[in-house]
Structure formats: C-alpha cells, structure tokens
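Intended use. Records like the one below are meant for learning the mapping from a protein sequence to its folded structure. Do not use them to infer anything beyond what is encoded.
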Amino acid sequence: MKNKATRREFIKTTGIAGVATIAGANISIASPSQILPKPITIAEVNSNFEREPLIRPFGFKGGYMTEIWQTVNYLKSSSGEHQIGLCTQNVLWSDAKVFASHSESGGNALMFALTERALQIMKGQSFTTPVDLLDNILPEVYAYGQKITSNPHLRKTFALNALVGTDNAAWLLYAKENGFKTFDEMIPKAYRLALSNHHSKAAAIPLMAYSIPINEIQAAVEQGYFFMKIKIGQPGTQEEMLEKDKARLSAIHQAIGNVRTPHTKDGKLPYYFDANGRYEKKETLLRLIDHAKKIGAFDQIAIIEEPFAEELEFSVSDIPVRLAADESAHTDVDAIKRIEMGYKAIALKAIAKTLSMTMKIAQVAHERNIPCFCADLTINPILVEWNKNVAGRLNSFPGMGNLGLIESNGHQNYKNWETMMSYHPRKDGAWVRATKGVYELNEEFYRTGGGIFDPMPHYEEMFAVKK
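Structure written out for the chain above:
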C-alpha cells in the first residue's frame, strides 16, 4: 500500500512517534524502537586494555587495589558496521576470593581472559537484541570463569563485569543497525516502564572510605554534595567493627547532621552507608541502628547497603531501615530473591553487571515497587554517562525530590582522571561534571545519550590497521 510505504519513509527520515496526517489520513507512526529489530551477525571481534593507576591504594572487602584495568571491546557486523564498548574491571568488588587468591595483575588477567573468551563465542553469532545475546552467552562464559579461576563458587558478578564492554558494544551496534538515535529508542519495550523518566538533575554521590577524615566530609557538603556513600563495616572483630562504626556515625552526625539541603523532602542530609557484607548477625546491625536512634541520626539513614554477606539468606523485613542489595543481586532472579527477603532497594550497576542485565533487574524491581539507584565501580568518564542514562530514567528515590541518584567516585581515585576525561567525546557538555553536588541532565544530554553514541578516537586508534 502507498500509505505503508509513505509511513516507512516518514519513520526512516524523522524517527517521530505519534500520529501524522499523510495523504489526508491520520496514521499512527511508530518510533524506530517499536519496529521489530533486525537480526545482527557479528563478523569480527577484537579487544585491548589500558592500566590506569590510582592516586592511593583503594581498600575495601579486606583488600587494596592500586590500579584499574580499562578494557576495550570491538564488534563488527556482517554489514560492515562496527562499534566499541568499554569496561572498567573490578576483581575485588566482583569476587574478593579471586582477588585474594592471585596477584592484582593476575586477577585482572583472568577477568580479561573471560572477556576474550566471550568475544570468541560471540564471533559468528546472530542476535536480535543485546539482552538475547547476553542470555545466550552468559552460561558458557560463567562456566569458563569457574574453570580458569579454579573456583566452582565463582560469583556471577565476575562474569558479568567481564561482559560489560562486549554488552555495550552490542548495544551500540544494535542502535546503529536499527537506526536508533537515542537511548530511549534503544530500550526494548519490555523494560520501558522501569526507565520512563527524564529527570533534569541527578545527585552526584561521592564515596567516603574508612580513612576519609570528617573535615573532608564537611568540605564535600560545603561544595554542595548532599548524598554521600560512607563505608562502614570497619576492620576488626565484630565487636571492634561495631564500636568503630558507632563512633564514625556519631562523628558524622555531629559534623553535618544540622546541614540543610533543598533536594530532600525534609530538608535534611540523607545518610547512605555501605557495609560490603561485613555484618554477620542482624543483632549487630540492630545495635548500630539503636545507636543511631540514641544520637538522633536514625531518621536520616536513607540506605544501608549490603550489610550481610551474600550467603546469609534470612529475612530482613524486621530491620527498621531501608536495606539495599548490591553485589548479591547478580541477576534479575537474584534480585527477586533479595526483595522477597525484605530488601527495599536495589543498587543498579549497568557499568558492572551489563546494561542488559540491569534492564532486567530494574524491571522486576519496578514491578514490585522497589526503588533503585545507580552505584559506581570507580569507572571511567564515558562509562559514567552510561550510568547517568539509567539514573536519569529511574523513578525518584523515596524522600528525595524529582531527581536521579548516581554514585561517581572516579575523580576521587584515578591518578590520570583529567587525561581520561579528554577521551570523552563531549567532555565540555554541561552534564559531564557535577555542579554543587548535582549533574544537570539537560535536553542535549537526552538527545545525545551524554555522548555514548559518538565516535571515541582514542579507543578507535587501538584497532586501526598500522601500515
């Protein structure tokens, strides 16, 4: 039919959804993302990496990192299109046992080997959406990870972290092949309800490790930061840990407890504590919460993240603060399990568990009215934009104003952060750097995806043919 041909041409040239008057008739116009995507065959693959040193050893989970590998993944389709995806490796976060069992470089090499194996599996495969591709390759990649680490209990996040760059490259190839120009168009229909907002602002969440002095936390508040991630679960026995955490909470509350912010509904600063699974019993955590009540800090605790080790599977419904699952919510199935245990928030990591898996986790959380926010992995500046694209589209977190939440601590930890920033294709964008503790997510950010669709010359050069 003529109208059908005209409609296809209209979509191809404008990408506009809605109703248009064509040849005197009202016709519903589907956006490109509503058209059935075409199969894509991966014809060529490649990979490389850079080692980025840290300003100082970064300690958590009983270990210390001194550098972070940035892996770069290349996918080329049978049609000749190619795309590059980035990944920030974090062996200590994804599986502390692997980190402890090898040298720092050895652990990174194992994760990179997993990425390389994934690329070889993907070569010659066809996929319709990157979510389907991840579902197809994850079991084999995970099994390979168990084999090369000699760890039958390897955490799934180790495999997912290794797949972030391949997954991002697949998403960009998927967008290119199907003519999707924005992140919104790229989201499959099944996951759009969980990612339906366009917040104009996102809170930038810095990380305050054990050793960060109180005056630096005060300085961050004076700069405008109002939602900070503070490490608890300090070294020592359970009793020593609890006493240190109580003292830390008291000192923080005394220093910033009376500061006010326009970004929360009650005007108070929210406290976000991350225990990294250090608490062994509920009773110990409840004693910390009782201390918070005693000093008047209880009402300001917005989140306690991963207080218990993943293997401690018991109901937390009786704990009177919002507990968030992070590492333990490897997949959408794991997230549902944590929600059923009483966890009331999910820390999403599109930059550590793949965008594909994150969409699935975000959707099951949305269906159960569980709020989400975006956590960091000390990632590079371009991956921060991938995280912002998710954070800006989530529902507002309870108690907050109309804004997203995104942890970002790379600027605090990388020795060469400004050099890495120079690789960002839109490094001068108004949304790139936080201002007074907030990322300004303007119209250009949403139109361009923050720059994730743009070419990245620094990384392209890694795969240029040398003559």
